[in-house]
Design brief:
The structure holds two protein chains of two kinds. By secondary structure, chain A is mainly β. Chain A is 0% helix and 39% strand. Chain A contains no helices and five strands. A three-stranded antiparallel beta sheet of chain A has the order 3-4-5, with no helix packed on it. A two-stranded antiparallel sheet of chain A has the order 1-2. Chain A starts with a strand and ends in a 10-residue tail after the last strand. In chain B, the strands form three sheets. Chain B has a five-stranded antiparallel beta sheet. Chain B has a four-stranded parallel beta sheet with strand order 2-1-3-4, sandwiched between helices. Chain B has a four-stranded antiparallel beta sheet with strand order 5-8-6-7, with helices on both faces. The longest helix of chain B has 14 residues. Chain B has nine helices and 13 strands. Chain B is of the alpha+beta class. The chains are: A mainly beta, B alpha+beta. Chains A and B meet through loops of A and loops of B.
Chain lengths: 59, 294
């Protein structure tokens, strides 16, 4: 049986599904409120709001 | 072999790169730029946030979204003799549109005409010397942020006044570029080492065609002309892993618009059929084994 990992969205408390291949510090979006989140811990799963975009961000 | 990857957080590109390293049996140490704490009077024997001495890394791949953090890290690491991709030399040129223009001009690489001025009156002169429409860009910036097309003197004066009111001194460097009457698309070409590995058209009804701004990606064949231009441009800025923004001109030519040193490519592998992450990793590892870096 496949266990889907989840964690509560720190913004709206909706349940966020964590992909099986998720990496620590990966960005993920909350499907309910659209907030951009960062996976700050994989075991146990912890989510936090991703840092705001700064003026020097880019490619 | 020890590899570190510097990043702000993991986006799809970094995930693809880490996976590509792992496919070659290498697990890179992920180092977050928020954890940097360099002893500037020290050397490469000091530990990275990973606990490994910086000097123990055979390669440090810089993938920070934060341009300032990435540049400082590259500057420090290169001074300590740590091999990085890209080099500080390359990144510092590509991170600044004025420096990029100068480097391309030195190497006679075709590009749009451009001027720089530092106050409103002279910026207006610069714009009118180029002629309308013209494009005002921050010298340092990405994703099309604050890039503005000026169709006439009224819009130029309004934009310059707004830029002057913005507090950050970076916005008081008025980098102005000739507007290129391109088709409703531009070209994003990916250069890895000495080869243009693939390219996409970015098509948009808007004159700004960045995929970050809604441009649609489709495959662009890499012609010998496109490859030659892009490789010349890459050499002009020091080489490495680079994404070229290329315009098609009304007379059928090609010009380099901008060069990006921490390229995004998640939307480009599918239309081109090229595994860009794997190409980047293969090249990065070759620079270790072949000593292809300065």
């Amino acid at each position: 049986m496949i266990t889907v990992r989840t964690a509560p969205c720190p913004v709206c408390e909706a349940t966020v599904n964590i992909p099986a291949d998720a990496m620590q510090n990966e960005l993920i979006a909350c499907a309910d409120c659209g907030s951009e989140l960062e996976i700050i811990n994989l075991n146990p799963i912890e989510l936090d709001l991703a840092p705001d975009v700064e003026e020097d961000w880019g490619e | 072999m020890r590899v570190a990857i510097l990043l702000t957080h993991i986006r799809p590109e970094e995930k693809l790169l880490i996976t590509a390293f792992e496919a070659r049996g290498i697990t890179p140490d992920v180092i977050l730029d928020r954890d940097f704490n360099f002893d500037l009077l020290g050397d490469a024997t000091q530990p990275a946030p990973s606990g490994v001495a910086w000097g123990e890394y055979d390669l440090v791949l810089e993938r920070c979204i934060s341009t300032s953090r990435g540049l400082y890290a590259l500057s420090i690491l290169n001074q300590w003799g740590v091999h990085t991709l890209n080099s500080y030399h390359t990144a510092s040129i590509c991170g600044d549109k004025v420096q990029t223009t100068l480097a391309l001009a030195r190497a006679d690489v075709p590009q749009p005409r451009a001027r720089v001025a530092f106050d409103e009156a002279h910026a207006l002169d610069a714009i009118e010397e180029l002629g309308y429409p013209a494009v005002l860009k921050p010298a340092i910036g990405s994703w099309g942020r604050l890039v503005a097309r000026m169709n006439d003197r009224d819009s130029a004066e309004a934009l310059l006044e707004h830029r002057q009111v913005l507090g950050d001194y970076n916005y008081h460097t008025y980098y102005v570029q000739e507007f290129v009457h391109k088709p409703s698309r531009d070209i994003r070409a990916f250069v890895v080492g000495n080869q243009t590995i693939c390219a996409i058209y970015r098509t948009s009804p808007h004159w700004i065609t960045n995929t970050a701004r809604g441009g649609q990606a489709s495959n662009c064949p890499v012609t010998p002309e496109l490859n030659d231009l892009c490789v010349s441009a890459a050499r002009a800025v020091g080489g490495g892993i680079l994404a070229m923004d290329v315009f098609e001109t009304p007379d059928g030519g090609l010009v380099i618009n901008e060069i990006n040193h921490t390229m995004e490519f998640k939307n480009s592998s599918a239309p081109t059929g090229v595994n860009i992450a794997d190409e980047v990793v293969a090249y990065a590892l070759s620079t270790i084994t072949e000593g292809a870096f300065a």
